[in-house]
Amino acid sequence: MAFSSFETQTHTETILEEPRLYRVSLLNDDWTAMDFVVQILMEVFDKTSQEARAITLKVHNEGKGICGIYPYDIAELKTQLVSQKAKEQGYPLRAITEELH
To answer: In what order do the strands lie in the sheet with 64-71?
Structure first.
C-alpha cells in the first residue's frame, strides 16, 4: 500500500490599516511663561527653536497651536508629558489630543 503525501497550503491575507491620527495642541493661558512653552515644544515635540517660537506665538495670539500629529498612544504620551512638566514648574499649561477626521 502506497501512501501519497498531500501538501496543504493555507493562504492568509493580512490587511493592515493605517493607524488613526491625533492632533496634539497647546492651549493658551494667562500665566505660563512663553519661554517655558518654547522649551516644552523643543523637548517634548522635537521642534527647532524657530518652529517652537512660531507655535508659541500662534498659541498666544490665537488661543491654540498645533504641536504635531501622531498615532493615539504617542499623542497621549506627549499630552501627559506636557501636563507633568507644567505641573512640576507650577504652570497651568494644557495640551489636548483631538482625533483627525
So the answer is: 64-71, 21-27, 94-99
